[in-house]
Amino acid sequence: DYIKQKLIDVAIPKANKVRELVKEHGDKVIQEVTMGQVLTGMKGVVGLMTCTSKLDPEEGIRFRGYSIPELKEKLPKMHDDGEPLPEGVFYLMLTGEIPSDDDVKYISEQWALRAQGIPTHVYDVIEALPKDAHPMIQFNTAILAMSTESQFRKAYLVGMDKKDYWDPTYEGVMDLIARLPIIAAYIYRRVFHQGRHIQADPSLDWAGNLAHMMGHDSEELRRLMRLYMLIHSDHEGGNVSAHATHLVGSALSNPYYSFAAGMNGLAGPLHGMANQDVMHWLNKLKREIGSEDPSEEQIKAYAEDTIRKGRVIPGYGHAVLRKTDPRFQVQLDFANKYIPDAPYIKLVNRIYNVVPGVLTATGKVKNPWPNVDAISGSLLTSYGIAEYPIYTVLFGVSRALGVLTQLIWDRLYGLPIERPKSQNLQWFIDQVD
Ligand code: FCX
Questions:
Q1: pLDDT at residue 239 above 90?
Q2: For the chain, which has fewer Cβ within 10 Å, the N-terminal or C-terminal residue?
């Protein structure tokens, strides 16, 4: 595997640098932390090193320095006017370099090959769950069930030099990413299509295959799936799914355990589950108003009512971003290009026109603008994937690309177990008395 050789060449000087920083500059003060920060979710506290992507509050996400528009230009694509292949952003996050067409083809082939070995007990475990168990329960359970395949644990028991931990981590990550679309599509077909499963087509790319196995096989939907898998892949290290994966991985839990932890976090309504909740909110709005085509005035009144009842408007706001999420914008661009007249897209635009004003009027929401989840479900629904409980699973398949490449880097850097200090309430009171 030439990628492993490439990785080790790139990583050795960087890992040396990390060691040097700790040894030579370990005492350097890098930040002041306020009580408010600690008590409101550690926002802005630098407590992690993540190199796969960086989130700017105004500009949004950059993957190894590249913004989404730049990736659209630079990463290999299936069609000249098309969306970059997620294999490319994986390669970029892993190695730090823009891949060639051959690199992307190699990853695609590797994943198609590695996808084949899912043990039967994984399907048995899924089948043991009730069909109406939420797809994220089924997805996360399947990820844990797949950890019987972990090379990391086996190699660890045989006995392995610390500096080699990254190698079985890489193997596990490659297997896991290869298999996630099959698991996601299996759950989707089990829950929503009477268990009529569709075999993978090894000639297809990773995201195109997911669309194919879900049974939504138009070229346009494959394009959407490539875009979806690209933009949800990473969002710096402090978001719940990335941080949880990193934290659990720091105990040398294998990639399956680590990723399952991240996915349990993604299943929260303030994080990845918001993409499903947006559709729930939207459909409830239509039902309560009694119209398929609510006006801006009606949407505004409904949004104000949501706030009055002490609930959040899903798909809006962000812990770091302070502008419209570029991941929202790129999906809107896709919709405007292919399906400008879709009723759900019209609704998304109407909501975009009024909700920021409603949130600003509360005087407390730090970012009134839409995030990635405000449109992803409406796009999928417009293409026939209307069963919204599957949306967070799709987010999760994509998120694997970022959090698991970072996990490989955690091991390449030789990062230790994470163990921040906690204090009780009295300690905080004593700080001001
Ligand atoms: N609707 C109503 N109230 C909101 C809100 C929204 N969309 N966004 C923030 N607020 C409220 C908060 O609940 C908080 O209220 P409180 O002071 O009474 O507790 C206040 O505004 C300040 O919160 P703020 O600092 O702006 O936001 P946080 O960093 O605490 O939280 C999230 C960020 C994203 C959790 C928040 O904006 C939210 O709940 N949004 C809706 C859910 C959502 O879309 N999540 C997906 C985010 C992301 F894109 C992803 O992970 O997928």
A1: yes
A2: C
Domain annotation covers residue 112: yes
φ/ψ bin of 201: left (φ > 0), alpha (ψ from -120 to 50), beta (otherwise): beta
Tell me whether 0.95 is exceeded by the ipTM: yes
Under DSSP, the state recorded for 74 is: H
For the domain that residue 126 is a member of, what is the CATH number? Answer: 1.10.580.10
Mean pLDDT of 106-131: 96
For ligand 1, residues with CB inside 6 Å are 239, 270-272, 274, 307, 312-319, 359, 364-367, 371-373
Tokens of 26: 């370990």
CA of 366 to the centre of ligand 1 (A): 8
pLDDT of 217 strictly over 90: no
Nearest atom within ligand 1 for CA of residue 40: 30
Please give the positions annotated as active site: 271, 318, 373
Nearest residue CA, atom 30 of ligand 1? 319
130 lies in some domain: yes
φ and ψ of 366, to 5 deg: -75, -25
Number of neighbours of residue 418 by Cβ within 10 angstroms = 15
Atom of ligand 1 nearest to the CA of 318: 34
Nearest to 164 by CA among 1, 15, 53: 15
Distances from the Cα of 153 to the Cα of 172, 253, 254, angstroms:
10, 8, 7
For residue 117, pLDDT beyond 90 = no
pLDDT in tens, 251-299: 999 999 999 999 999 999 999 999 999 999 999 999 999 999 999 999 9
Distance CA 405, CA 196 (A): 33
Whether 191 is in a domain gets the answer yes
Encoded tokens for 267: 């299943």
Establish if 129 belongs to a structural domain: yes
Taken as a whole, the chain contains a residue count of: 433
Q: What are phi and psi of 254, to 5 degrees?
A: -70, 170
Atom of ligand 1 nearest to the CA of 240: 51
By residue range, what is the domain housing residue 169?
102-267+397-413
Nearest residue to 192 via CA among 254, 248, 138: 138
Number of domains into which the chain is organized: 1
How remote is the CA of residue 426 from the centroid of ligand 1, in Å?
28
Q: Cα 430 vs. chain centroid, distance in angstroms? A: 39
